[in-house]
Amino acid sequence: MAKILVLDDVFDAGVMIKKILQRKGHDVETFTEEEDALAHVKDHPVDLAILDIKLKKMSGVEVLEEMKKISPEVKAIMLTGFPTIETVRQALSLGADEYCVKPIDKDELEDKVAQVLGD
Question: What is the Cα–Cα distance from 115 to 2, expressed in whole angstroms?
Fold first, then answer.
């Protein structure tokens, strides 16, 4: 299955997403720090990045922009508790494939991951 990176500044949110996606057979790594997630992408191939838009130091959109420089083929799903047309448009323009609104709905997350990965 897919190699998935999850970046959320809330540790428990990342763990919940990891559990949901591991049950589907995916290999999932979770991060709470932007630098750690970017360093991981430099050293390991990632099929899909699931990024929270609101992070500690950078926005998820900025992290996506940096990830695309390292690994242009990485697919991305953005997470947001505060969806605005502007953040969604910005994320999609930088190459995000989809977005999910928090709190995460298990079925929606599974469906969007399958859709983005082409499963």
Answer: 12
Phi, psi for residue 82 in degrees, rounded to 5: -130, 70
88 touches 99 (CB < 8 A):
yes
User: Tokens representing 67?
Assistant: 């990830």
Name 115's Cβ contacts closer than 8 Å, sequence gap at least 6.
98
Average pLDDT over residues 6-23: 97
Q: What is the pTM of this model?
A: 0.95
According to CATH, the topology of domain 3-117 is Rossmann fold (3.40.50)
Residue with tokens 């082409």: 118
User: Cα 100 to chain center, whole Å?
Assistant: 10
**Residue ranges of domains in the chain:** 3-117
5-18 b/e (C-beta count within 10 Å ≥ 16 → b): bbbbbeeebbebbb
**Distance between CA 93 and CA 1 in Å, rounded?**
27
For residue 60, pLDDT beyond 90: yes
